[in-house]
Specification:
The complex is a heterodimer of chains A (351) and B (605). Chain A is mainly alpha-helical. Helices cover 45% and strands 5% of the residues of chain A. In chain A, the strands form three sheets. Chain A has a two-stranded antiparallel ribbon. In chain B, the strands form six sheets. In chain B, strands 1, 2, 3, 4, 5, 6, 7, 8, 9, 10, 11, 12 and 13 form a 13-stranded antiparallel β-sheet that branches. Chain B has a five-stranded antiparallel β-sheet with strand order 20-24-23-19-21. In chain B, strands 25, 27, 28, 30 and 32 form a five-stranded antiparallel β-sheet that branches. In chain B, helix 3 crosses helix 7 and helix 6 runs antiparallel to helix 7. The radius of gyration of chain B is 28 Å and the shape is globular. Classes of the chains: A mainly alpha (351), B mainly beta (605). At the A-B interface, helix 4, strand 3, strand 4, helix 9 and helix 10 of A face strand 2, helix 4, helix 6 and strand 35 of B. Strand 3 of chain A pairs parallel with strand 35 of chain B, so a sheet runs across the interface.
Chain lengths: 351, 605
């Protein structure tokens, strides 16, 4: 489970104004974004035409995290704080703790897909405070001597309700609403406390499910249980034959370990032969990643229509990453047996 | 004015041109169970970008080269910062000589701070003046040819930091509109996988001013033809590519653009060093001059003093200044240049000069501005032709045009001739009939129109001394087959055949994102497809990247996509445990087990 620094939750509780919350919400936005590189790396490691169901499962979680990022930015803008995405401090270093996480907690790296990564990283990131237990699923018991991301968001939600509409008077023109990409019931303008509370509930439920069900109110399986289904190799389904109402007895989730590129874990650009083809493709990936951050910044800086362009960059990033992942790495001219992994570090200049 | 005769900034570096290559062969368009010919880059995605490209020089005014401390030196030349990369796209498998750059936003950025000092949208254009530039061949990189893209930057924005740069400030003050002129000279392209060089090449470029009325895709100056710089052996001619010069009367300068003309040894871009041995005498220097008369031809050897020498070009300086040389023009030379042909001259050890390259006949040069078209059957396009004589707009010039269509007949209607107006331009309309699908799997036809200001004895355009290449300096159009958008497009009948072809030709999409020919695979990408297929054609996200789909066929796919129900994620949604299905499957397994069938076939006798 992602253990959130208790001090962050306490700071939310003690906030008396929109300004007090801005820095904390920015960290939450960083956290939502910080989950994308590990998920995307795993997704990119899946070979073309193989393990497609898993590819889609991870892809859809990435899309949800993008949505959560935009929701967080809408909240920041509603609080009259400028989201800082195109900023050197925005992207965390990998491997490392996630934003808001406590230092001794989960260390997240960038690795090729494996069932082990799903269980020990992805499920940990998304794990609810009290994971529900279903036939086939591991039972999780955690002592709550630290805070959780769910608790953080719930505290934030309570605080926003308490501060009320006067705290949420940011320029409505800076709110991102994009029905082409996200349904209006999932991405909407945050203009008052009611819409803020609704938006935060959505983030928690898409990640964790609700307190009593592994699905969000739309009926979509929450991220944690989606990853658990991959880990167990069977989809989670409604099941009237068991008391919990759900079981991991749905269609199989086939996984072929041979359908994964042997990506270098936590690839460092400097570890590649300078000016090798893999080096250049990593640079291409970094420049495209930087363009994605800049395009998203423009979207949340009052040009919401630019999201179309940002989505174009996202496609380009996927293509750049897939091409990179398919590339065997040579070391001094000889095959190293590994492929280059994506590097989520900013780079201005393509080389 | 152009990038040649005002303040200018030059840059050098490399570029990425990740062009896909399966579509280089028309045969690949045919549906077939056989894999198409992959050629050298089947996985190309079409990306064009600047690589490690920096400002290397410039002039804020005549004889005012960049000061050593001008902050413009070393600025990074970058593509877009907040949207997708530009694309490099061929017109057609049967016309690969007009590759165009689409959707390029160019920026000059301080690499240390990220501050943007200048940005502009590169108007779509194709390369011209394709020639063999690598004198020592292309054993390493594989492509000895070079070409240049001349265009304009639109929607130019000068950042506040420009004030600190003499040259950028001069450029801003000398620009009456938010438009600048630009040239990109590309060479040394790698077909081969060497280090990090695959699908990249070398580049120099120049940015300068633009004035209303000037062409958008070339400098309407004084055209010098391709010539022979040296013949070192029978097999190794060192050529000097076609070039253009302008006379800046106010500043008494002659500025010549050798950016796509100076020969390089190989892909590394080093200029061929002088002196260079040559049949007929070692070439000790390259000079710019004015010929003593109109009748002097390229190759003629002139006695010392016969030509008016304007100055010497030091090719070693060429890379940093993008091949642009600005030479002072003495009054007598200016008078000569106004009346007689300019030339590039090879100085021989005894003081004689061999004419390497000379200006067009009588200084007359016509060139089409918008010279690459995509036209649907029943539609039309226009092209403006510019005529100049010794660099000045030439009125009342008759330009002869002739289709170069095969015997099957022309589908483009163009006037046989047109006459320039007072401003030296004439605009013609190209009207497209229905080609009638003569190429089967490849839509439409490619047709080119030759043009010249002179007629040969047989009535065809005469290219001798025109500065135009008969095969490449043409107006070219991909004319698309007539097609009616079905009221209710059908996947199998109307959509799948088109998309499956793209899937076959561009495996980068099929392998890494979506097999466009597979309905189930396509469904989740509906929103992205709709976005890409409804963009403006100049948008970097436009689909298809190759921009070769006719308007009606594109409208058909858009209409079909609009009616395709939005897919709900098959992953996210919760399903139900299906007891019947499970019971049926279990029954099957039991029955087979009872019969001892394990499915492996191992017990076959």
């Amino acid at each position: 489970m992602l253990r959130v620094d208790r001090a962050a939750v306490d700071a939310v509780s003690e906030a008396t104004s929109a300004d007090d919350l801005a820095g904390l919400v920015q960290e939450a936005v960083r956290l939502e974004f910080a989950t994308i590189p590990p998920y995307l790396t795993a997704m990119l490691s899946l070979k073309p035409g193989q393990n497609r169901e898993i590819w889609w499962a991870v892809h859809d979680v990435v899309v949800d995290e993008m949505l959560h990022l935009l929701i967080g930015c809408n909240l920041l803008n509603a609080l009259r704080a400028r989201p800082a995405l195109d900023d050197p401090a925005f992207v965390p270093a990998y491997p490392g703790p996630l934003p808001l996480g406590i230092g001794s907690g989960l260390v997240v790296g960038l690795e090729a897909f494996s069932l082990d990564v799903v269980e020990h990283v992805f499920m940990e990131i998304e794990e609810p405070e009290r994971a529900l237990s279903f036939p086939g699923a591991a039972v999780t018991v955690d002592a709550a001597d630290f805070s959780t991301i769910g608790e953080f968001y719930r505290t934030l939600s309570t605080k926003l309700a308490e501060l009320g509409d006067p705290a949420l008077v940011g320029d409505p023109a800076r709110q991102v609403v994009a029905p082409r990409w996200f349904p209006a019931e999932r991405l909407f303008a945050i203009t008052d406390a009611t819409s803020a509370v609704r938006a935060l509930a959505l983030i928690v439920e898409e990640g964790e499910g609700t307190a009593t069900a592994p699905v969000d109110p739309d009926g979509d399986v929450a991220h944690y249980y989606r990853f658990e289904a991959i880990r167990r190799g069977r989809r989670l389904v409604r099941d009237e034959t068991v008391p919990a109402g759900y079981s991991f007895s749905g269609a199989p989730y086939p996984f072929d370990p041979a359908g994964v590129w042997p990506l270098t874990a936590n690839q460092r650009h400097a570890d590649l032969d300078f000016r090798s083809e893999a080096w250049r493709r990593v640079q291409q990936f970094r420049v495209t990643f930087t363009r994605l951050l800049a395009s998203l910044q423009r979207v949340v800086d009052g040009d919401p229509d630019h999201l179309d362009m940002a989505m174009g960059v996202m496609f380009e990033l996927k293509l750049a990453g897939q091409a990179l992942a398919a590339m065997p790495v040579l070391s001094e001219g000889l095959p190293s047996g590994r492929h280059a992994g994506p590097v989520f570090e900013r780079a201005l200049e393509n080389e | 004015m152009s990038y040649l005769d005002g303040p200018r900034v030059t840059f050098a570096g490399r570029f990425l041109g990740d062009v896909p290559t399966i579509n280089n062969s028309a045969g690949s368009f045919e549906p077939s169970p056989q894999a198409p010919n992959p050629a050298w880059n089947p996985g190309g995605g079409g990306t064009f970008d600047f690589l490690n490209c920096h400002v290397t020089g410039g002039e804020s005014g005549p004889e005012e080269p960049l000061a050593a401390g001008d902050p413009v030196l070393g600025l990074a030349v970058l593509g877009a910062g907040d949207r997708s990369s530009a694309k490099l796209v061929d017109l057609d498998p049967q016309w690969q000589f007009s590759s165009q750059i689409w959707g390029l936003r160019l920026r000059l950025v301080d690499p240390a701070t990220g501050e943007e000092l200048l940005s502009g949208s590169f108007r779509v254009t194709a390369f011209r003046d394709l020639w063999t530039r690598q004198a020592a061949g292309a054993a390493v990189n594989g492509q000895p040819a070079a070409g240049s893209f001349t265009s304009v930057l639109d929607e130019v924005v000068f950042g506040p930091g420009c004030a600190a740069s003499l040259v950028l400030d001069a450029l801003r003050r000398a620009s009456p509109t938010p438009r600048l002129s630009i040239v990109l000279n590309l060479f040394g392209y790698f077909y081969n996988h060497v280090d990090d060089r695959f699908a990249t090449g070398a580049m120099t470029g120049c940015i300068g001013t633009w004035r209303p009325g000037e062409p958008l895709s070339f400098v309407a100056g004084r055209r010098l033809e391709l010539g022979l710089l040296a013949r070192t052996s029978a097999a190794a001619d060192v050529l000097l590519g076609p070039s253009v010069a302008v006379v800046d009367r106010g500043a008494s300068r002659l500025v010549v653009d050798l950016g796509n003309a100076y020969p390089v040894i190989d892909h590394t871009g080093g200029p061929v060093p002088l002196p260079v041995p040559s049949a007929g005498g070692t070439v000790t220097a390259l000079e710019v001059g004015v010929l003593p008369s109109e009748t002097i031809r390229a190759g003629t050897v002139l006695t010392d003093g016969a030509a008016t020498i304007v100055g010497t070009v030091d090719l070693a300086q060429a890379p940093a200044q993008a091949g642009v040389f600005s030479l002072p023009l003495a009054p007598a030379a200016a008078v000569a240049a106004a009346q007689r042909p300019l030339a590039l001259l090879a100085r021989l050890p005894d003081g004689r000069r061999r004419v390497v390259s000379r200006e067009t006949l009588d200084g007359l040069w016509v060139r089409a501005d918008e010279f690459v078209h995509r036209i649907d059957a029943g539609s039309a396009a226009t092209t403006t032709l510019h005529a100049v004589r010794r660099g000045e707009p030439a009125a009342d010039v008759t330009i002869h045009l002739a289709s170069r269509a095969s015997a099957a007949g022309s589908v483009l209607s163009v006037p046989g001739q047109t006459e320039t107006g007072a401003d030296g331009t004439a605009t013609i309309t190209l009207t497209a009939a229905d080609p009638g699908n003569p190429r089967g799997a490849v839509d439409g036809v490619v047709e080119s129109i030759g043009y010249s200001a002179r007629l040969a004895a047989d009535g065809s355009p005469d290219y001798a001394g025109s500065g135009l290449d008969a095969n490449l300096d043409v107006i070219v159009a991909h004319v698309r087959d007539a097609y009616e958008v079905p009221p209710d497009p059908d996947w199998a009948r109307d959509v799948q055949p088109v998309l499956a072809q793209y899937s076959r030709l561009y495996p980068v999409m099929r392998e890494h994102l979506v097999d466009l020919g597979d309905l189930d695979a396509l469904r989740p990408w509906r929103a992205a497809m709709l976005l890409a297929m409804t963009r403006d054609i100049a948008d970097p996200n436009y689909m298809p990247v190759t921009r070769d789909l006719s308007g009606p066929k594109r409208a058909t796919i858009v209409r079909w996509l609009e009616r395709l129900p939005a897919a709900r994620s098959v992953v996210a949604g919760i399903g139900f445990r299906d007891a019947k299905a499970e019971a049926a499957a279990a029954m099957g397994r039991r029955a087979l087990a009872q019969q001892g069938v394990d499915g492996t076939g191992s017990d076959e006798e």
